[in-house]
Amino acid sequence: MARLGAALKATRLARRPKLTEERAAREAGFSRATLQNIEKGIASARVTPTIREYARHLGWAEGAIERVLAGEEPRMAPDTADQAETPDAKASTAPPPKEGPPLPLRVVDAIESEGALVDTALIPLGDDATMVLLVKGRPGATADEVRASATPEEVLAAMEAYRRSLSPQVQELATDTEQSPAANDA
């Protein structure tokens, strides 16, 4: 179920324009907490109608859930491959997403680069900052291959090494708000 949740999340994050958790949950007809549980793979021990509806909402083809659970990549439905750009989607009563400052090009390049999206985390850095961590695999590697190539301890060590490489002000913020890795996913 964790693999399925990660694949659903990766599909949502790949949508253009960007589909936020709040908007995806509202449009699919359930709470943001439900969406988060689905994407973390903790919503259920089995595929529920809600999970199937979410996959359909994201444009997955019939049978895509079973493909992901079998270790393959999901397939998009031909008529919904770019659902966000369809006239019906534009006529939705949902408010448009908030416009913000453009992302730095290196962030956009990292998000759009080849390679499986393995995980993301928001790491609080005091009251006024958050670090966004994006973990992607090498081009051609599946998310499972990338996850199998590094232990959680190695990932935490790499994150700590990165934190130490930051400016002293950011290091201080990160040290002041030490949390468990599970808290970072909240």
Could you walk me through the main structural features you see in this protein, from its secondary elements to its overall organization?
By secondary structure, this protein is mainly α. It has helices spanning 2-14, 21-28, 32-40, 49-57, 64-69, 87-90, 105-112, 143-149, 152-165, 168-176, 181-184; strands spanning 117-124, 130-136. The chain has a two-stranded antiparallel ribbon. Strand 1 (117-124) and strand 2 form a beta hairpin. Helix 1 crosses helix 3 and helix 2 packs across helix 3. The relative contact order is 0.11.
Give a brief rundown of this model.
The chain has 186 residues and is mainly alpha-helical. It has helices at residues 2-14, 21-28, 32-40, 49-57, 64-69, 87-90, 105-112, 143-149, 152-165, 168-176, 181-184; strands at residues 117-124, 130-136. The longest helix has 14 residues, at 152-165.
